Amino acid sequence: MQRRTRSGLETVDQDSARFMTDSTHTPFRWTEPVAHLDGVGPKRAELLKRLGVESAGDLLYHFPRDYQDRSTVTPIAEAWQGERVTVYAAITSIRSQRLRNRKSMAVATLEDGSGAMGATWFGRGFLARALKPGQQGFFTGTVGNYKGPVLQNPEYEITDEEDGALHGGRVVPIYSLTDGVTQRMLRQWIRAALDRLLDALPDPLPEAVRAEHGWPGLREPFEHVHFPADVETGRRASERFAYEELFVLQLGLLKARQERAQSEDGITHRTDGPHLARLQSRLPFALTNAQARARDDILADMAAPRPMARLIQGDVGCGKTVVALHAVAAAVDSGCQAAVMAPTEVLAEQHFHTLHAALTPLGIPVGLLTGSSPAPKQTRSDLATGLVKVVVGTQALMQDATAFARLGLVIVDEQHRFGVMQRAALAGKGRHADLLHMTATPIPRSLVLTLYGSMDLTVIDEMPPGRLPVKTRRIPPEKEADLMGYLRNQAEAGFQTYYICPLIEESEAMDLTPVTRRYDELRAGPLAGVATALLHGRMAPDEKDAVLRQFREGAVKILFSTSVIEVGIDVPQATTMVIEDAAQFGMTQLHQLRGRVGRGMEQSYCFLLGTPRTEQGEARLRTLCATADGFAIAEADLEMRGPGEFQGARQAGISELKAADLLRDTRLLDWARRDAAALLAADPALNAPEHALLARDAARYSELAL
Ligand code: ADP
Ligand code: MG
Question: Crossing angle for the helix pair 289-303 and 320-333, nearest 10 degrees?
C-alpha cells in the first residue's frame, strides 16, 4: 500500500486499507457507501454522517461553503507589509506565549526557499501544541509587524508538496467540517469520488429541463463547483445545483398539494348554515374586498371534499380575525368543533376574548386552554364530549390529554412560530380536519413558496377604510421630556399608549432598560397622576388578564410592557407606541409592535428611543422610519439576517438547502416552481422511469408538507 499523502492517510485503518489495494480505477456506484472510498473507512464514514454524507454520491453534494484563492503563492521574501498573501512554508519553530487576562498567543517562524517570517495567533496559544516544527503548508493572512514581519492570525493548512495540486497553488474549496474531518480529507475524498463516479452519475433533472437551461450533464458542473479554475466558475456551477435543489423541493411541495387537491377524504362543511348567516348579518362593518376574497376562498375550501390547507397572509391590522370567524361559524354549522392555536398565552387570551365576544351572542360556547387557564380538566372533558364547540389555546391544545369529539377546523395563528411538527400534531387530532393558517409576519415570497409551498395562499393586501399609516419617529435623549408631556396630553385627551422596554428586570448581562424600573421612575416623575399599569410575562395569569382588561376598557391609559404585547393585541383607542432601546428588537418585531397602534381612525405615532450601538441597528431603525410596508421590511430583514432566522425554517427543510440561497436565488426559485408544475402536469404521479430518482428525492419534501 502506497501512502499518497502524509497526514490524510497515515492513520488509515485496516478496513479502508482493504479497499485501497485495487480500487483506484473500478467505477463506483452512486450509492456506494462512502466507507468504501480510499482513506475513509467505517470510522470516518460514521463522522461523515453528521454532514449528511453516507454514500459516495452524497459526498459530491457536499458543496463548498466558500472558496479560497491560493492560485498565487507569494515567496516570503516578497510578502510586503499590509498585503494579504498566501505563502507555502515550513514551520521551523513554534511556541506559546502568555498574554494578559489569561489569554495566550502562538508564535511561529515560517521559512520557504526565499526567506523567513513570523506567524502569530492571538488568543490561540494551544496551536503551539497542535502544530509542530518541520510541518509545512499554506498560510494565508495579512502581513503585519511583531518584532519583524509576521502573518497575523493566518488561516493555515498543513500539507506536503505532493498534493499541492489539490490543496494549494489554485482556488481551493472550503467545506463545512465536522470533528475529525479536515478540509484536506474532504478534498481528497471528493476528488476520488469525482474521478470514479463521473461516468455513472445519474442526473436527477429531466432531459427537457436540462436542455432548456443549457445544462448538458453533471460532470462539468460537479468538477467546477468543487475544483474550479477560478472563483467565478465555481459560483456559476453552483447555480445548477441550487436550481436542482429548489426544483426537487418545489416538486415535492406541489405534489403534496396536488394530492390533497384530488383527495376526497376531507370534511365537506356546509356554508349555508344559521350561525354563519347570523355572524354575517351582525358584522358592524363591511368586509374589505380583500377580506371578502379571503372569506370566499376559505368557504369554498371548506365546502369541498378535499382537506383545506390555506395560508392567509396579511399585515397587522388588516382584519384577519373576522375572516377566521366565518370559518369557525361554518365549522359549527356543520356539527364540527374548531380549534384556534396561538403562539403565546397573551395572544391566546386575546383571541379568546374576541371569539367569545363574537360567538357567545350566536349561542356558540367558546373555551380557553393554555398552560395556565382555569379548570383545564373541565375544558378538556367538554371538548371530548363536544360540549365546547370552539377552543382557543396554546401548545396545550396539542397535548395527548386533549381530545376532541369532532374536530373539523384547525386555525393556527402566527404559525411560522410553530414548527411543522407541532402543526402536524394538532392537525392529527382531527382526522382530515381543515387547516387554516394565518400570519401577520410578512414573509417574503421566496420563503412562502418554500415554507408553505404546498399550501394555497390568500393575501389580504388591503386595510380597513379610514386607516392612516402610523408615523414613526426617532426620539433623541434631549427630546424625551417633550415626549413625556405628549403622552400626558394624549392620556388626558382619552388616547392610550403602549410603552415597551426590552427587559422585564435589571440584568447584569445586558445594559438595557428594564420595564419595571421605567414604570417606577416615570409614574413617580413625569407621568405622575396618569393611569398607568404594568404587564409582563412573569406576572400571574389572572393579574395579566386584569391589566389587559383595564387597558382594553380604557381605564388604564399607559401600558408599560415588554414585547409580549407584540402579537395580536387589538385596542383601537391606542394611538401611541413608545419603544425604548428600539435597536434591540428585530425589524419585523418592531413592525409588529408598531402594528398595535393605527387601528382606529386617529393618526397614530410610533416613537423609537435609544441610540443603536451597531451600524445594523441604525439601519434597522432607519428602514422602519422610512416605510410602513411590512413586506419591504421583511425583505430588508431577511437580507440583514438570513432565512435561518425564521423560526420553523429548520423543520421545513430550509436549513437543509445545501446549494440554494433563498435570497440570492429568487430567479432560480421561480424557474424551479414553474418547471416543477409543468413536469407534474405531464407526469402527475412521477411514474415515468426517467423520473424515478426525482420522485424519491421529492418525496422527502412531500412528507414535510401539510
Ligand atoms: P389582524 O389580526 O389582521 O392584525 P384584526 O383582525 O385584529 O387584524 O383587526 C384589526 C382591527 O380592525 C379590529 O379592531 C377589527 O375589528 C377591525 N376591522 C377588521 N376588519 C374591518 C373592516 N372591514 N372595516 C373596519 N374595521 C375592521
Ligand atoms: Mg390578529
Answer: 30
